[in-house]
Amino acid sequence: MMVDHQYQHLASVSCRALWCAVLANAWVEAIYPSSRAHPVEIQQSRNWFGSSDFFQVCALAGVEPSQVMMKFTAAIALRNQPTRRVRGRVRV
C-alpha cells in the first residue's frame, strides 16, 4: 500500500496504535477474563505472553517486551492473591 509522503507519519502512528490495542486486548483477556471464559482459554491467553507472537507484537507496538512481561507477571501474581476483608473493605 502506498501512502502519500505527508501522511506517512500518521500511518506509522496509526499502525503502532493498532498493535498497542492488540497488546491491550491480550492483557485484558489474560488478566481479567470474562466470567464465561473456559479455563483452557484463560490459560492459552496467559501462555501467549512470552511467545514469539508476543515478541513480534511488542516490536510492532514499539514497547519493550521485558517490561511488559515483568508487569504481566506482577499482575498475574496480584490477581492470584486471595482477597481479605478489612473493616468492610476488600483488601488485596
From TrEMBL:
This chain's protein is named Uncharacterized protein
What species is this protein from?
A: Paracoccus onubensis
